[in-house]
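User: Predict the full complex structure for these chains.
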Amino acid sequence: MKKILILLLFVTSILSAQEKEFKYSLSGIKKVVLASGTKIVLTAENTSELVLTDNKKVRNNHSGHEDHQKEKAEKRKGLTAVYPNGKDNSDGFGFSITKEGSVLYVTDLKSMYQRNGINLTLPKTMNISVNAGNLGSVSLEGFTGEVEVATNVGKIEMKNVTGPITANTSVGKIDIDFDKVSQTSPITISSSVSEIDVAIPANTKADLELRTQGTVYTNFDFDTPKKKGLPNVSGNKSINSKLNNGGVKIYIKSSMGNIYLRKK
Amino acid sequence: MKCTDIQHKFTGFLNKSLSEVANSEVKEHLKSCTNCNKELEEMKSFLAVLDSQEMETPSANLRDNFNKMLAQEIETATPKVIQLKPQQDWISYLKVAASIVIIIGAFLFGKHQSNITQIASVKNENQKQVLALLENSSASKRILGVSDAEEFTKKDTKIIEALINRLFFDKNANVRLAAAETLSKFSSEIIVRDALIKSLETDENSSVQIELIQILAKIQEKRAIESMQKLLKNEETPLYVKQQVELNLPSLL
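Assistant: Here is the predicted structure of the two-chain assembly.
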């Protein structure tokens, strides 16, 4: 009896601690296209729906804060928020959600100044395309579908992914850790100036192409063919090598940043 | 009246074809001018030589010989007519043989043609596949299409146009990057060079800008100097892109 009570208490405490969330069924959806300019965290779950939660701003718990919030809520009563680039259909989360065929577009309507990061839970096998705008960053974990990520200054972090991956950033760091490497179509990771850190399993079959004016560090054994009598052309120095007799193309390019390729 | 004018009239004078007035003029002049008299004498003797020459006439043999030769030629040129015995069998054999030859010939020709069309259709199939890949909704698949497009020749304008289309309009920066790289292999084509320059002016992704700057420097496209200088002047251009311009611009100047 005591145990049950404790458990009940525990569960209720968890429930109460959770933020409000928005759910959307993903039946028939093969790809989710997300656009938001904040810190985006995606987690893979064995579900068939999208779950969206908002990181609320850290509240300074000064007295009167609650009253202030209440007052705000009072003001909003009977009114709905409208946004310049779409209709909010995510119960007040400030997202426009539209379906086109088997693609679901999830677009942030609020400016990045009103956001403090968002968290999405999606099915493990879902194909995902994320654009984090100018300052947003993306971190995701555990997806086995195709992932496309674009940021400008925010970092890109991926863990336990299989690819195909298409990632691009201007100055954000890229850090990708592969569980295994899908052989279906190319993996391309590009950045203008930042460093790129990629870890792949030792037995990965791949055709590597690494291009940078920085330095490439790796613990793989490269059999780079010696090019005799060819002048080095600035910016077009690329390292081409086959891993385990070749396979899917892995293309990593940073014009200035170092490339780290790790064996797992 | 000059001597030369008179001398010009000598031929007419000797032929007696001059007018009365001119004739009397020449006579009048000849009375007083020894030089012209000399000239006239020379001309007279010359004309006399011409007159005394007999016209050469061909010998009578010539005509006879010619006629003989003609008759011989006519005889050899007319086909000999040989009466054939009507051989019904031989003709029907010929017909059968001819029809067999025609059938076999047609068959071989058809086979050859189908080979050609097969090769063409394989090429078309490949082209269709690549064009379809380039339109795929997955960025990675589009990149696959772009790298497959490298195998096509310069003459394949459909492929090149599709690549240019990717370079201009693809939403994914990595696809545009790959398209730029593949297009740089077709840089002998003027539309490709134009596209690369235009793209440098319009693309806002810094990775793509840097790639284009490097390509344009590599293919020595002098027309890109202007757009590179624009990038340098533009306040919104990131520093590291300007650095790339500064690195590559000197090689074009």
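Residues 88-134 of chain B form the longest helix (47 residues).
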